[in-house]
Amino acid sequence: MPLDTTSHDIPVARTAADLRATVAEWRKMGETVALVPTMGALHEGHLSLVDLARKKTDRVVVSVFVNPTQFAPHEDFSAYPRTEAADAARLAGKADLIFAPDAGDMYPDGFSTTISLTGVAEPLEGTFRPTHFAGVATVVAKLILRAQADVAIFGEKDWQQLAVIRRMVADLDIPVEILGGPIMREADGLAMSSRNVYLTPDERKAAGQLNVILKETAASVSSGIPITEATRAGAARILALGFNQIDYLEIRDAASLAEFPSGHPTSPARILVAAKISRTRLIDNMPV
After folding, report:
1. Residue 75's pLDDT band (boundaries 50, 70, 90)?
2. Looking at the annotation, which residues are catalytic?
3. Contact 140, 37 (CB under 8 A)
4. Can you name the residues that pair with 64 across neighbouring β-strands?
């Protein structure tokens, strides 16, 4: 099947075979390939990852696939924004190919393999979304292997996801370099996210204070305040903004996401949060 070029300024591969055929042509010319996996609804944060990919390799593939296996039944899979035409317009001149398969291509009849994870996948998101990382790891492994990528790039906003993918790639000896791209933020510091479109004006104003509380909580721990005391105070401030649920506000080892038994960081640390305001779940993180 030829690439879809009828409605976009950038070619779109719909199947693994089409993707591999295109990559094979690039390989014949000795070119290197980067993959930027996304679920679409692209914003400047995604585009910064594409720009980073362009600096690292000769060719850039952006996958656009809302992956059903990483959503629990009560989560927002059906409502997740799908904006392929707008995404393609934003990628024109930046990427060389969009890979936009359907679920039947990614998970054909009889598909029965899932990557199982422990360790870095277990705390935080793993506690509140226990099936999430198995879905993420499985689809990311498939995308990397389909694209035969030299480099794959992920945003640091999903810090635990990045750690999980690095662990998976190392454990399974997948020959790809995993890079993290810095978090892109709005003018008030809110981490860019496709889910931000769900926020009402009042919720958006409150959400813009989430990063401020993270910075101030991290600063208090750096000044010597015990982690539990600082995060308890930070959580109270988040709820006072109008957030209705905090899944976690934690300071963990930046690499392993292990807790600090002493109550004070003893290695490079990261503060991570997941909180809901109305029905929108926002995540963020930053170094301590």
Report:
1. confident
2. 46
3. yes
4. 38
